[in-house]
From TrEMBL:
Pfam families: EamA (PF00892). The chain crosses the membrane at residues 55-75. InterPro entries: EamA_dom, EmrE-like. SUPFAM superfamilies: Multidrug resistance efflux transporter EmrE (SSF103481). Gene3D superfamilies: 1.10.3730.20. Residues 2-71 form the EamA domain. GO terms for cellular component: membrane. The keyword DNA damage does not apply. Signal peptide: none annotated. This is EamA domain-containing protein. Keywords: Membrane, Transmembrane, Transmembrane helix.
Amino acid sequence: MLAVILMGLCLSLGYMFFSAGMRTGIHPVTASILANVEPVMNPLWAFLFLGERLGVVSLLGVTLVLVSLSVYNIMKSKQAVRV
């Protein structure tokens, strides 16, 4: 029961901080990029702290998110240089 309460607390605090960050003026694209890092970090934390093995699907997902973020940042930096 305690685990369910703690899980609910962690989830609600995460969304609350995300919403508070959006209200303080963080650009929505930046906020969505940070939100996309969560699926990358979850398998890493499970591997480091729980000893879980990373499956092929997890590694493919992590790779996809990291490549997408890299491409976005490269495109954004090229746009900034042109302007």
